[in-house]
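Run log // design_07
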């Protein structure tokens, strides 16, 4: 179906134009649109966090660079007067950071960048990439929905027209005498019963209804995929708190590592959020989505409502126990995630 028909159908739905049948309703994609709208708002918060964490890492690295420069600067010396004028007591100027391991300070900045990217920023990039892919898939879902509804309108119009023609023909036939009816059939050159003259129209209507059924199945499949992906995306948001805490642990470890440059044996109090083994406790968001049973996340995509009946999901429906596996394109989008762009358009 061409873009013009989709635009026309979207305009009709915006204006509230119904089909020829009284009970006709547009096919609903409301649940996905509502979830995407909230995900869009959450995406802005993800960007704020991502930007702030990266800028903090850059500031810490710059501060370590300043610290190195200061520690490497010479200490002022004591001078005494001699026949030649003031001369330093110490021949060689000592530096502020005598005995400090500058290599450790340099390595700290590099390790901080790598760890923060791997353990915090990259998972946030993956979430953003999955969100963008869901938006693209939902645009295709919306196109398919409009195509389906346009075809439903055509089929409904054909059905109403055919029914009206049959009614008129039946009323006319009842008023004619048997001889007039026979003459009518002879004039048409058919001699078949009156109902057969609608055979072509009924065949065309059946073809349209078959197309509607195929489009409906395609739409249900695509809409269900988008819904399943959104469930996974929403479940992944539950671990944002862990990533925020992990970022603090990564910063803490960076400062502890920098402290070892001074004497090699830091005596710092253990943070309650630090992992006993010294590694940062991080799990990927997708690996935690199965543990949301107590949160009441949905386990399988409920059947897409029949547009011929009520296309909206039941108001009192409760989400199933656990989220279904996301579609393959969702996982692929996460794997191909790139660095987040803060000025990208996530408004649509």
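design_07 sequence
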């Amino acid at each position: 179906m061409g873009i013009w028909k989709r635009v026309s159908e979207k305009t009709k739905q915006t204006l509230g134009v119904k089909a020829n049948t009284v009970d006709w309703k547009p096919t609903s994609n409301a649940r996905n649109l509502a979830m995407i709208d909230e995900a869009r708002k959450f995406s802005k918060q993800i960007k704020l966090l991502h930007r702030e964490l990266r800028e903090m890492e850059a500031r810490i690295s710059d501060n370590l660079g300043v610290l190195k420069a200061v520690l490497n600067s010479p200490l002022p010396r004591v001078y005494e007067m001699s026949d030649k004028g003031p001369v330093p007591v110490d021949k060689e100027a000592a530096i502020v950071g005598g005995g400090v391991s500058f290599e450790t300070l340099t390595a700290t900045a590099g390790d901080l960048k790598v760890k923060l990217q791997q353990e915090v920023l990259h998972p946030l990039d993956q979430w953003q990439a999955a969100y963008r892919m869901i938006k693209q898939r939902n645009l295709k879902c919306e196109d398919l929905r409009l195509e389906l509804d346009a075809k439903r309108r055509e089929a409904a119009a054909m059905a109403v027209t055919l029914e009206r023609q049959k009614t008129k023909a039946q009323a006319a036939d009842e008023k004619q005498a048997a001889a007039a009816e026979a003459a009518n059939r002879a004039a048409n050159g058919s001699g078949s019963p009156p109902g057969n003259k609608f055979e072509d129209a009924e065949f065309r209507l059946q073809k349209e209804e078959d197309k509607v059924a195929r489009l409906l199945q395609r739409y249900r499949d695509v809409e269900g995929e988008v819904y399943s992906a959104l469930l996974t995306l929403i479940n992944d948001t539950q671990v944002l708190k862990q990533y925020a805490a992990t970022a603090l642990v990564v910063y803490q470890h960076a400062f502890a590592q920098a402290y070892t440059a001074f004497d090699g044996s830091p005596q710092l109090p253990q943070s309650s959020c630090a992992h006993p083994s010294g590694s940062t406790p991080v799990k990927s968001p997708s690996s935690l989505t199965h543990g949301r049973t107590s949160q009441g996340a949905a386990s399988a995509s409920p059947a897409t409502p029949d547009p011929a009946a009520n296309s909206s999901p039941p108001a009192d429906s409760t989400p199933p126990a656990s989220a279904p596996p996301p579609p393959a394109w969702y996982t692929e989008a996460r794997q191909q995630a790139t660095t987040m762009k803060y000025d990208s358009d996530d408004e649509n």
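Residues 102-175 form the longest helix (74 residues).
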